[in-house]
Amino acid sequence: MTEYWKSLNEPSSEQDEFPELLQIGSHGFGRRGFLKAAGFSFAGAMLAGCSRAPVEKAIPHLNKPEEITPGVAYHYASTCGACSAGCGLLVKVRDGRPVKLEGNPQHALSRGALCAVGQASILGLYDSLRLKSPLRGGTQAGWEEVDREITAELDAFRRDRKAVRFLSPAILSPTLRHMIDRFLQGFPGARHVVYDPLSCSAILDAHQATHGARVLPHYRFERAEVIAGFDADFLGTWISPVEFTAGYAAGRSLEGEPARFSYHIQFEPRLSITGSKADRRIRVAPSELETVVAHLAALIAMKAGAALDLGPLGPPPAPLEPLADRLWNARGRSLVVSGSQDVTTQVLVNYLNHTLGNYGATLDLDRPSAQRQGNDRQLEGLIGELREGQVAALFVYGVNPVYDLPDGEALARAIQKVPLAVSFAERLDETASVSRYVCPDHHYLESWGDAEPVSGVLSLTQPVIRPLGDTRSVLESLAAWQGIRKSAYDLSRESWQASVFPRQTQEKSFQTWSDKAVHDGCVEVAPARTAIRPFSMVAVERKPPARAAFELVLYPKAGMLDGRHAYNPWLQELPDPITKVTWDNYACLSPTAAANLGVSDGDVVRLEARGKTLELPALIQPGQHDRVVAIALGYGRKETQRFAKIGPAWLHRRLSVGEDGYVGKAASPLLAFSGSTLRYSAVCDKIGKTGRRQELAATQHHHNIHVPKELGGERRPVIEERTLEEARRRGPETGHAADLWPPDHAVPGQRWGMAIDLTACTGCSACVIACQVENNVPVVGKDEVRRQREMHWIRLDRYYSGEGDSLTVAHQPMLCQHCEHAPCETVCPVLATVHSADGLNQQVYNRCVGTRYCANNCPYKVRRFNWFDYPHEDKLQNMVLNPDVTVRSRGVMEKCSFCIQRIQEARIEARRRGEEIEDGDIRTACQQTCPAGAIVFGDMNDPESRISKLLESPRRYHVLEDLNVLPSIGYLALVRNRDT
Amino acid sequence: MNQRVVTWVLVVGLGFSFFMLFGKVGAFRLPGNQQGYEPVQPIAYSHRLHAGELQIACLYCHSGAELSRHAGIPSANICMNCHKFVTATLGAMHAEDDVAQKEKRPPRRLVSSELQKLYDALGLNENLERDPAKEQKPVAWVRIHKLPDFAYFDHRAHVGVGVECQQCHGQVTTMERMRQAEDLSMGWCVNCHRDVNRTGVAGKPVQASIDCQTCHY
Fold this sequence. Notes:
The complex is a heterodimer.
Chain A: H1 31-50, E1 57-58, E2 73-79, E3 88-94, E4 97-103, H2 116-120, H3 122-125, E5 135-136, E6 139-140, H4 143-160, E7 163-168, H5 174-185, E8 191-194, H6 201-211, E9 216-219, E10 226-230, H7 241-250, E11 252-253, E12 260-261, E13 263-268, H8 273-277, E14 280-283, H9 286-304, H10 321-329, E15 334-338, H11 343-355, E16 363-369, H12 376-387, E17 391-396, H13 401-404, H14 408-417, E18 420-423, E19 437-438, E20 449-454, E21 457-461, H15 474-480, H16 488-500, H17 510-520, E22 522-524, E23 551-555, H18 569-573, E24 581-582, E25 587-589, H19 591-597, E26 603-609, E27 612-620, E28 628-632, E29 672-674, E30 677-679, E31 681-683, E32 686-693, E33 697-698, E34 721-723, H20 724-729, E35 752-757, H21 766-774, H22 782-786, E36 795-801, E37 808-814, H23 823-827, E38 833-835, E39 841-843, H24 853-857, E40 864-865, E41 893-894, H25 900-913, H26 925-929, E42 935-939, H27 946-951, E43 956-957, E44 969-972, E45 974-976
Parallel strand pairs in A: 7-8, 7-17, 10-13, 10-15, 13-14, 17-18, 18-19, 23-28, 25-27, 34-45, 35-44
Antiparallel strand pairs in A: 2-3, 3-4, 5-6, 5-19, 9-16, 11-12, 20-21, 21-22, 23-31, 24-33, 25-28, 26-27, 26-32, 29-30, 35-42, 36-37, 38-39, 40-41, 43-44
Helix pairs in contact in A: 5-15, 5-16, 6-11, 9-10, 9-11
Chain B: H1 2-23, H2 47-53, H3 58-61, H4 64-67, H5 76-83, H6 90-103, H7 113-122, E1 141-142, H8 155-161, H9 165-169, H10 186-199
C-alpha cells in the first residue's frame, strides 16, 4: 500500500488536539472557592428562574401573499454572479431572506453543483460595508443629482466628441451587453473594453488566428478519454471549474454505465488541484511549457503525416512519445487544454486539437463559451490612453483595475484625472475610491438579469430579496443616462422578447415561455451564429525560452480567485485545497529550492521581479518545479482591513491582518503585459531570505489521525489507492471483522450513511463552505486557526506520497463518521453525545458541559470545541444564519450532524404528505454542492438505495477499519489510471 | 437580652421566609418556565368568543399549523374576511339596527374600539377602504408560546397525526386572553412522546421519536 504523509515537516512529537493546558491548579481552586462559585451560580439560577423571559413580539403579515407560508423555505432559480462561469442556483429563502445557495440541477452547465466561491457569495448580500447609496467625490449623494450631473457631463462629451470608455469583465448577460452597446452608440468613437481579471486572452487570440473568430471553445471534459493539461487548473479556478469538474468526474466513473475512465496527464509548474488529480503529472517551468507543446505538436504532426514547421526544437524537456501515442489513438476523444498566456503556445494547442479531430467533439466552437471575452491588447491600449489623459469618461463595471493590473498606483492617478470616472462597484474598492462617482450595483440576488455563459444556454437571474440599500441595477443606471426610465425587470423582458424568445420554437407565447424560463432558471435556445472559419494553421513565431534560475508564477487560489471576494471571511478562512493555509498568501518553493536557499516554512523571503520587490513568508510545497516560486493573487485587498479584529476578543488575541493592515500581500504589481497578453509568469531576478519569520495559519497538522507517539506513532493507512487494472480486477470483498459488541441497538427504520468516492473528490472544498453556511459554523480568525481552533465540520485532508515528478496527492473529506460503536459516546459523562434510532451520532448542545473527552477519544478528530462565543454582533450578517440550526455558545462541542435539520424536514414533509422518503430526497449540504458528485448520502437499510449499491462496491473501505468502530461513512478507494 | 432579641428576629424571619416560600410555591418556576404567561395584547382579542362561542376552527386562522413549523398568527387580511362586515359586537349592532328602524334611517356603522385598531393597522378609512394617506402598520402581538433557541418544534408533525391543539395549548375556547397553559418543558414533551407510543393518537398507532435530535440540532 502507498504510504501517504501530510507534510514535509510533520511535527516530531504528536501534537495534541488541545495543545494549551488550562491554568487551573496552579493557584489552587480550593473547597471554599468552589462553594462560593457554586453558591453564586445557584443564586443566579434562582434569580433567573424568578424573572420572565424578555417580551418578544410576533408580527404577522398585514396581507399575506397566498403563495407564502411563514416558516416554510422556498427555492427560487437564479444564476450565480460570483464569477463569470454563470452556474445555476436555487436560492433557499426563509421568511423573506435568502439563507442558502444550492446548485440548480436543471442547469445545463453546472448540473446542480456549486463551488466554494458560489456558496460563500451569499454573505456578500449581507455585507454591512456594501455601499448603501451612490457616492460623489467620496460622499453620499442622491440618485437624482448623480444622474443629473452625469447626464450633463455626458451631453458635453457627446458634443465635443470626447473619448468615452466602458471597462468590464466578460459580460455573460446579453441584456447588459446590448444595453452597454446602446449606451455607447450615443458617443462617437466610444469603446467597450473587456478584460478578465483571470485572463484567457491568448486562447481567444489563438482562435482569432486559426479560426478567424475571437471565441473561447466550450470544453467538454465528459467526452474526453485522454486529457492533456498544460498549466490549466480546470478543476480549480480555470474558466468554469464546476462544469469541468462534473464533466471530468463523469468521464472517470467506475460505477457509471458503461464504466469509463479517462487518462489525464498534467504539465504544470506548481501543484494545482488539477495536477493533484492527474494520473501522471510532470513539472515544467513556465518558460518550458511552449517547448513541451511544440514537441508534442511535432510528434502528432509526424503521426498525421502533416508538415509543421516549428524551427529548431531542441531536446524535449520530458518524454512525450507515450502521450503522443495515447492522444493519437484517442483521436476525436482526446482534449488538449492550456492555461498559457502565450499566443504561440495556444496556436499549437489549437493545432493539436485540430489534428487530433477534437474540434466538434471535445471542443465545441458552434456553441462557444462567453465565460472569457477579455482582450488584453485593447486593455493595454486603454491604459495608454488613460495615462496620456485622453479619456473623458470612464465607466468601470465588475472589475477593479487599480488592484487587478500591474502599476495600479499609476492607474489610480490616471483615473483620478479622468473628468468623469464612474464605478458601479458594490463596495468601495481600490478603483471605486479613486472614481468621482460610485453608482453601486445591486448584489446579484437583488436584481433581475440573465446570463448566456455558453451560446444557447440562457440562465436567468431573479431577485430573491428587496434591495437592502439604495442601490440600483447597472441596467437601470445605463438606461437612466440615456433618458429611459425603466426597471431592470422591464429591460430584461424586452431584451428576452426581442433577442432570445425568437431563438426557440417550442413555445408560441412569450409570457408562457418567460414564466417557465424564470421558474426553471435555465433554458436552451438556438446558439447565436458566429462566423467561424475552418482551421488553418498560421506560421508560429517561437522565441527561445529565457532560462532563469528562478521563475515566478502568479496563480489564482481556489476560493480567493482574483481577490474579488476578499471581503468574505468564509473564503479567507477556507484552507487552500493544496497548502492548507488560511488567511494569507505566501511564496511556494519546492523542497529542493528551499533547501538551496536555506529557507524553511514561515521564513520571510524577498523576491524581485520586473523591478518590483515583494516580501512574503515561504511555504515549502512538494510537487513544485525546483526553479519556480509561486504566489497567489487576490490578497492584500483594501477590503481586508475589516478583518483586523475578527474572531473572539481575548487577552492573547493577535490580529488577522499583516503589518500593513491587509490580509496577505498583493501580487498583481508583478504582472506585466507582454506580447499583447497579461502574463502570470515572469523571470524572478532575485530571491533571498530576509531573516524575519511570519507564522502561517496552516491547518495541515491539525486533527491528525496518526497513532499517538507514546503508542508507537506509526502512520495509519487512511487512504486506499488502486490502479485502474486492480480496481477492475478486484472482486467484491467478503467477510467482516468479528464483533465483540452485542448488536444491542437495532436500527429497524432508516439507517443513514454516506459514501465518499475518493476517485471523484478533487479537494475543491466547496463542501467546506456549503457546510459552513448550512450549519452556522463560525469564523474564528487567523490567530485562532493557528491555535488549531478552526470550526469547520468537514475538512479536506490532503496527503502526499512520493516526491518530485512522481508525487501523488490524495484528498479525503473527513467528517463525523457516525460510528455505530462510537468511541465518543462511551466517554461523555453527561450523555451529550448519544446514538439515535436511525444510526446517527447525535450531539446535544444543551446537554454538553464541555469536558472535551469525546474529542480526545475520537479516532477521526472531527469534533470541534467552541472556545468562545464567536462574535455575532453584525446584525445584518446574522441574516445569513440558518434558522433551522442552533448557533452554538461557548463551551459546547459540535460536529457534523449529517444535516439532521434536512433529515427532519424531509421526514416531516413526507409524513405530512403521507408518503415515504424516497432515495435522494435528503441531500446533505456537502453532497448537494459537490461538483464531482463524490458524496452520496442515503438509507443503508434500503437495499435499492444508491448508497447501498455504492457500499457494496469492491472499492469500499472504512478509514481505520481495524478499530472496529463501524463508521457509517464508507470511502471508495482512490483509483488512478496508471500501472503502478 | 441581646441574644434573645437576635434569636427572635431570626425565628420570625425564618418563619416569614417559609411562609413566603410555601405561600408562593405554586408560582415557583424553573428558569425558562413561562407557564401561566398571559400578557396584555395590543388588541383585546378573545379566543373564548371566536373559538369557543362562535366555534371558528383553529386552523381557519392558524393555517400554518398544517403546512409549516409555525402555526403562525393570522395576517390582518384573514381577520378582514369577517370583520369587513362585523365591525362591532352583535348586541351593539342589533341595538343600532333597532334604533335606526325606529328613527327610519339607515343604520350607522358602529366600530368597536378594538376593531378600530385592526382597521388602523391596515390603513383603512371609515368606509373600510384603503386610505393611501394612512400608514399601514402590522399588529405587533406579544409572543406567548416560545421554545428556547436550541429546541425545534414543528407543528406539521403534530397536527398531521391528529394531536388536538388543546393538548398543548390548553382550553383555548375558555380563554378571554391567551395564556400559556402548559410549561412546555422537555420532560412534558418527552412524557407525551413516550405515552403516545403506547396509546397512539386518535386511535391510530404513531411513532413519536424520543431521540435527542428530534428536537435538538
